[in-house]
């Protein structure tokens, strides 16, 4: 301590040019220290927004200086089989046991099998993009961190805000579905578990206490330990897979192939495609929620022992395995019952219990298996949402309190607890119909952004290459994809539609090939990279845009509302908190350099004496 005081005194006398640094250290104040300070900060919002919105971080900063803001480190205890277990457990419960009934009966019919295949392909291509980032930059921030080092803070914040809403909505939907399946196990209808409040609007008037209890229990588990959470997940996932194999075998052995083409009501549309080809893609957009689990796996990268080997196996492998399981389960259900008899809330247990003779006992078995799957899905997704919030807190665009990692459990306890309570509050009263479409649109948007980011990062090196050729390609390709989607959705069937679609496809391929031939890659991945660059991420961009176009209008209204809310939060809080953090980091770095220089001067002076 005395050395530090002597150093300061000495440098003030002999290095007056450095003295302003100490003054800056004393006079730097937070934008939120007082009302007058906040009002003064608001008056500088345009300047700060311009400076911070496009500011990019570096992988080195994300893995060192930024990660240090959490205090304690997350313990590296996970291997590839842990990630594979988290991926399978996180996806299977949410997808099949929540969305299949609605997608089959209302959107795709028996062709829901193809809906799962389309959504799985889109997810696999996106998984490749996630894997390249996660191997190169193994941090817990997932898409938020990937966009922060690519497109800057503002794009990362909007994406991160939508990601948090995705997880909260998805987990609330899955928890409410748990009530339905648990009721099947004990023979009590889910309506008996929920309290109706007539004063609340429709879709928000069914109070679900069981869903709240489940979410709070899972929150406690993920706060306790990541290693133990993995063990619990592996046990529940193994039991769940046994039930899935059982469901597939029963469905294929006891069902009838005619149910793939003949509805129970002759007035309904028949055939494998009762809703047409568009129904397949509409169904794919709805079931896309089921693949949000692999995104959660990417947030565990900071806790993986060998990211180069374990992450590609865990992320991509889990998507492939889950896609096969989804398609087989959807096919078994479609074979067991005509699509117009499938229950929209608990499709599998209802299919075996109420509609098929002699299989009532199977319904309760499925209820047990679905309950296991829903618990694993909640466990993985809630781990993911907590790690997203933790890393967003590290960037200072939300209060740093969220970034803290508990020194004993080595888990983000603050973020886990806050989001657990928030999710429980939402699950208490919000219906599934309100939740599912909003989750799908947010997920598709995030995957679209990550696909753009991996192309940009491969072809643009800041300070070395110009970004405009790559940005022009990304904008023009996205615009062509949007035009293709609008033509597909709004133009009536006929030769005109076929011609316009063909023209858009030719233009998109031409743009892609021209970019591939004329713009060289600025960097090559050191360990693992997306193959066939830029074709695979470009196809991912197109599929995400196309699936986005399959969603309904209210979904875009809700998505626009939450995005606008995120912009308001960024303008009135995040940009100023980030600006303050930038100043603190700059002063801290200068103070470190100043201290080292002063100490060297003191040593020289002592040597002379």
From TrEMBL:
- Membrane topology, as annotated: Multi-pass membrane protein
Please give the superkingdom of this protein's source: Eukaryota
| GO CC aspect terms | plasma membrane
The alphabetical list of record keywords is: Membrane, Transmembrane, Transmembrane helix
Subcellular location, record wording: Membrane
Annotated GO MF terms? amino acid transmembrane transporter activity
Coiled-coil ranges from the UniProt annotation: none
The record, for InterPro entries, names: AA/rel_permease1, CAT_C
**Main location, first listed in the record:** membrane
Record-linked Pfam families = AA_permease_2, AA_permease_C
Query: To which protein family does this belong?
Result: Belongs to the amino acid-polyamine-organocation (APC) superfamily. Cationic amino acid transporter (CAT) (TC 2.A.3.3) family.
Give the protein name, as stated in the record: Putative amino acid/polyamine transporter I, cationic amino acid transporter
Write down the species.
Lupinus albus (White lupine)
Could you read off the lineage of the organism from its UniProt record? Eukaryota, Viridiplantae, Streptophyta, Embryophyta, Tracheophyta
